[in-house]
């Protein structure tokens, strides 16, 4: 974990340019992840775009909005900034916080199906996992006339108020909002404020830019390297959907109540990946396609994911999904958007018991 630099040392590194040079060197090293990827110009091009997206996200998070005394809720993962098989049904918000302070998160609940607030240790820019320190779900909120209030603190608040626990080394608030039907569900209206003292931002300083650039570089290099390692592991089960390691998922900031099946797909232009399994009891399920870099495909323009609400029901009580470059004339078709390979993920949200392993097989598309 990064510690605040000595002000004199930070000032010297800013003055002589070493802070910037180190940041640029880290970005240059991150390019090795792309060069080590598949020998395919399109995949390498997407890899370079991926690094630019991570850089943009990292600078916003660790240079512009890194002050836990004046936290800012921001969308760090969205339609044009993606990582780690990001869920197309989700709207993610993050904020830099500190377990040494107290905060108030409040607003209107809205009607989005799944809402979760979580506090986690550290941040993605510290080169380690992000173990959870507290969670509270939308179903557990005290909502009065559509309004709610949650206290974020290391100690339980008085008066029985809704509480999101933190620890001394808590560094991040993550908000997950999951649509099942975007046309009929509304997102919450959220406000976050510090309530244990003056909330104005601390003056920007050489220490702030030194630390911010270092964390930003670590996010770009670290996240790209970590998820590239995951993808390498997925090659052992291409076109299959085995259970993913829950402990590893939790360590990296996944939701403990979600069972994940992370894997990889690879298809020829005339092939179709058929995915089938029983409709196991759960709050909801979700399946998505991503590119090689574990970025969800562009869901703004094409159907690249399904969930239990929008999928077409079949008469046999099973889930049926078809993945291919062109429409095979089957229900629940997802397009690969012209790609030949990439990552994929099946999620069971709060399943009853152990959910099934989906059956996967590749067939030739008919004429």
Number of strands: 16
Q: What distance separates the N and C termini?
A: 57 Å
Query: Which class of the largest domain in CATH terms?
Result: Mainly Beta
Beta-strand proportion: 25-35%
- The secondary-structure element order is HHHEEEEEEEEHHEEEEEEEE
* Secondary structure: helix percent: 10-25%
Widest sheet: strand ordering: 1-7-3-4
Structural class label: alpha+beta
Number of domains: 3
Under the CATH scheme, the architecture of the largest domain is: Sandwich
Q: What is the CATH superfamily label of the largest domain?
A: Domain of unknown function DUF1214, C-terminal domain
CATH names the topology of the largest domain as Jelly Rolls
How many separate helices?
A: 5
- The shape is globular
Specify the biggest β-sheet.
4 strands, antiparallel
Radius of gyration: 22 Å
Q: How confident overall, as mean pLDDT? A: 93
What are the segments in which pLDDT stays under 50 over at least 5 consecutive residues? none
Structure write-up:
The protein has helices at about 5-15, 20-35, 40-65, 205-235, 245-250; strands spanning about 90-95, 105-110, 115-120, 130-135, 145-155, 160-165, 170-180, 190-195, 260-265, 270-280, 285-290, 305, 320-325, 335, 340-350, 360-365. With about 375 residues, it is α+β, with helices and mostly antiparallel strands. The model has no long low-confidence stretch (mean pLDDT about 95). The strands form 4 sheets. Strands 1-7-3-4 form a 4-stranded antiparallel beta sheet, with no helix packed on it. About 25% of the residues lie in helices and about 30% in strands. It folds into 3 domains: about 1-65 and about 200-235; about 70-200, Domain of unknown function DUF1214, C-terminal domain (Jelly Rolls, Sandwich); about 240-365, Jelly Rolls. It contains 5 helices and 16 strands. Helix 2 (about 20-35) packs antiparallel against helix 3 (about 40-65).
